[in-house]
Amino acid sequence: SVTRSYAALQRTRELDLALGQLAAELRDAETGQRGFLLTGKPVYLEPYHHAIGNLPAVRDRLWAQAAGRPALGELMAKLDPLVDALAA
Fold first, then answer.
1. Buried/exposed 22-42: b ≥16 CB within 10 Å, e otherwise
2. Residues 50, 21: contact at Cβ < 8 Å?
3. Which of 63, 72, 76, 87 has the smallest number of CB atoms closer than 10 Å to its CB?
4. Which pLDDT tens digit goes with each residue over 20-56?
5. What is the pTM of this model?
């Protein structure tokens, strides 16, 4: 039905947004870390710390999207320890 199709489209869009945010946070963390390593200036760690602090919320959004999607749940199970290690 149209309602189910619309709901599926919305879920896909939310997943796409959450994955985009995950990629952006990881990119910001990597860029900040690289800036610090190249210059030794702590100011470059600000985006790193900000991005790392956002990762648990992004992970939670992705887990919410994993409901009813076994393949995504498997990927999230692999992502969890990585986020935990970064956020620690």
1. beebbebbeebbebbeeeeee
2. no
3. 87
4. 999 999 999 999 999 999 999 999 999 999 999 999 8
5. 0.81
